[in-house]
Amino acid sequence: MDAWRTRVGVLTVSACLALTACGAEIAVRDAAPGQERTAIDVPAGTVLSPARWPDACSFVTDAEIKAILPQAKKLSRESDWVKVPEDGALGGKAGAGLASDGKCAYSFGLPQNGGYKGHIEGWGAFDVEILAVADPKLLTRYVAKSKAAHQRGCGRPGNGRQGVRSR
User: Fold this and answer.
1) Rounded to a whole number, what is the largest CA-CA distance in the chain?
2) Whole-structure pTM over 0.70, yes or no?
């Protein structure tokens, strides 16, 4: 997985969610992902079993969240498991199984921006879920094939499902 793109996407989504939930009084800054890297050893041409996936809560740091949302406080994370079925896994059986920390729910407090000036906070949140960990070349091919299959199915009767005929 491209950790840099994942972080940029996650941080962009979190900024949008925070703006939607809490309004214009929340300061949002542009920020690039940090230099931290999650060490993942994936041999060429292979898919990692979910049991060997990294902790999804290690992908976005408090500093990265605060770089975009400087008013964020009380940052917290909660990991959750992800079960990948064999028929939905990249690599089939090799990529199937249970990842004990394959999903992470990040949450944080934000200033209240309503007319009430009490000590009430708003909240922002986003989730990160790992879908596969594999050799980047395998992932690139898989995404390209998925896009091509989706594009072939678009505009066809039956919402793009193969083998469905309209009368």
Assistant:
1) 62
2) no
Q: What is the SS3 assignment for 54?
A: coil
List the 121-129 sheet strands across, edge first.
Answer: 73-84, 97-111, 121-129
> How high is the pLDDT of residue 164?
41
Residue in the structure block whose two tokens are 């950790």: 3
Instruction: Give CA separation, 31 vs 12, 104, 113, 146, in Å.
Output: 9, 21, 23, 31
Classify residue 74 as exposed, middle or buried by CB count within 10 Å of its CB (0-12, 13-18, 19+): exposed
What DSSP designation does 97 have?
Answer: E
Spans of the chain, pLDDT less than 70 = 1-24, 113-120, 155-167
Going 3 to 109 to 17 to 56, the CA torsion angle's sign is: positive
DSSP, res 90: T
Q: Which two tokens stand for residue 167?
A: 């009368």
DSSP string, 104-128: EEEEEEEE--SS--SS-EEEEEEEE
Cβ pair 17, 125 in contact under 8 A: yes
Cβ pair 3, 32 in contact under 8 A: no
Specify the pLDDT at position 120: 66
